[in-house]
Amino acid sequence: MSEKMPQFPESYWLDSTDIPSYPKLEEKKQTEVGIVGGGIVGLTAAYLLSKQGVKVTVIDASTLVNGTTGHTTAKITAQHGIIYDELIQHFGKNMALQYYQAAMEAKKLIETTIRDLNIDCNYQVEDAYIYTNSDDYISKLETEKKAYDELGINGDLTDEIPLDIPVKRALVMKEQAQFHPLKYLHRLIKECENNGVQFFEHTVAIDVEYNKHPAIITKEGHRLLCNHVIVASHFPFYDKQSFYFARMYPERSYVIAVKSDQKYPGGMYINAESPTRSVRSTKVDGQELWLIGGENHKTGQGETTIKHYEALQQFGEEQFGISEFQYRWSAQDLTTLDKVPYIGSIKEGEDSVFVATGFNKWGMTNGTIAAKIFSDKIVHGKNEFEELYTPSRFHADPQIKKFATINADVAKHMIKGKLEITNDTIQGLSTDDAIITKINGKRAGVYKDQDENMYALDTTCTHMGCEVEWNSGDRTWDCPCHGSRFSYKGEVIEGPAKKPLKQIDLSK
Ligand code: FES
Questions:
Q1: Which of 184, 51, 21, 19 is nearest to 118 (CA)?
Q2: CA of 72: how far to CAs of 29, 209, 361, in Å?
Q3: How far is the CA of 190 from the centre of ligand 1 (A)?
Q4: 493: nearest Cα among 501, 481, 485
Q5: For the chain, which has fewer Cβ within 10 Å, the N-terminal or C-terminal residue?
Q6: Enclosing H/E stretch for 34
Q7: Which part of the chain is the Rieske domain (predicted)?
Q8: What is the pLDDT of residues 424-456, one digit of tens each?
């Protein structure tokens, strides 16, 4: 790890906001809408519902906004990569247009909320750019521009962008936006409290049971009786045999927050090719903090994770010059088979349990529109965008191929992990490092912390039995199959796994 780089990951958003804490749910409760997950979906839905007089309770397995929402790049844009030509091909012009309109509706909802509640959250209107230096992507950007024209999207092709980096071609979408997501959500939490919303943290939901109405069951066995349940836990904690894990793939990406002597020229940027590079800035005490992101890869797969931060650092140093390195953090995103999120009834015909997942890295707009759809469905029975996102959709050709690819990749990793032979031993293990070894003839992962304490775990993922891999950047064990993540002590950080990794007693 480079000397300049902070030793531990920490999100700037989380570090610069004082989010209140809430107690654990310790008893049976009744509410109208039970929301599992205190990120942008859960909190926006709680705000929208409670201001219309609906009784809402939000529970979170960890603390509010500590998941993907606290680790985003927080771009509020309908420019979700190169997507509109593909959407027209797969869904037709009307659906593609709806996708754009939904994202713009989400942007408008965020703007209106900021205005209504007078929120100081560094909201700024910015143009969004996709740029490329690869000849292969020039024609893709040109085709995407034709899709913009067909859909009436305000955008242009250009050979120059305000950011001082080499570019062969770029596609701009005008008047998008960015903000400080947690300053925004912090105010929403306060407003929810004023509207009577109850929050419970460190409350793990493990199931939904049905009687006349659904009840969320917590790990401690408490029941939250509801008329409606919103599953907003990133990976759905409950899927009613709908196999969401086989219909999405998880990716990790990285962000570094640095200062540069260069003046930030405005705008939000992402390249079209791999490795991904994303750039935006935010003002901190009158100075620009540059957020440089990217290096996406499938969870639990690829090179040592710290190398991804180093690659971003190298990019930042070469292109802009880094005068000060302030933060580094990473996020996990889920992408669906056709890149359109799953938002709606958890299963066809089920109208009391809703799910929102698979935001394909564009959680600010997709998460906000999910919340709007849920609040409209619950209060008015319908929303104009609900059909587009229906989780039970399954249009034939392109998705089936993708489905097969995702699951073949899972099978490959399932076998690869089991066959992996390692000769490493714990005797040679340095502090703050981990190895895969064998203990009592079984594959085991051992991490040694800075005080020389060792934590040994059975590396078999408790979801479906793949073998987890060490993530050195975040000090976690990550599963290459469906993206479950575990702390070095074995606790579940991210599903679909629900049970911790088995601890191994090294003294025996
Ligand atoms: Fe499915 Fe690990 S997440 S096997």
A1: 184
A2: 32, 32, 8
A3: 37
A4: 485
A5: C
A6: strand 33-36
A7: 417-508
A8: 777 778 888 898 888 887 888 999 998 889 999
Rounded to whole angstroms, how far apart are CA atoms 475 and 305? 10
**Best residue among 466, 498, 499, 501 to mutate for probing ligand 1, ranked by most atoms within 8 Å of CB:** 466
Determine the distance separating the centroid of ligand 1 and the alpha carbon of 232, expressed in angstroms: 20
296 within a domain of the structure (yes/no): no
Long-range CB contacts for residues 288-291, cutoff 8 Å, separation at least 24: 288/259, 288/260, 288/263, 288/264, 289/12, 289/257, 289/258, 289/259, 289/326, 290/257, 290/258, 290/259, 290/260, 290/264, 290/316, 290/320, 291/12, 291/73, 291/255, 291/256, 291/257
The pLDDT tens digits for 209-268 are: 988 899 999 999 999 999 999 999 998 988 877 888 888 889 999 999 999 999 999 999
- Give the position, in ligand 1's atom list, of the atom nearest the Cα of 464: 4
- First-to-last alpha carbon distance for the chain, in angstroms, is 34
125 CA to middle of ligand 1, Å? 40
Atom of ligand 1 nearest to the CA of 496: 3
Q: What are phi and psi of 385, to 5 degrees?
A: -100, 0
Pairing of β 223-225 and β 29-30? parallel
Same domain, 392 and 468: no
Tell me the pLDDT tens digit for each residue of 91-108.
Answer: 999 999 999 999 999 999
Rounded distance between C-alpha atoms, residue 230 and residue 58, angstroms? 9
- Ligand 1 is surrounded, with C-beta below 6 A, by 245, 461, 463-466, 479, 481-484, 496-497
Minimum CA distance residue for ligand 1 atom 3: 482
Residues of the chain short of pLDDT 70, as ranges, are 1-2, 394-423
Q: What atom of ligand 1 comes closest to residue 484's alpha carbon?
A: 3
CATH of the domain at 485: 2.102.10.10
200 belongs to a structural domain? yes
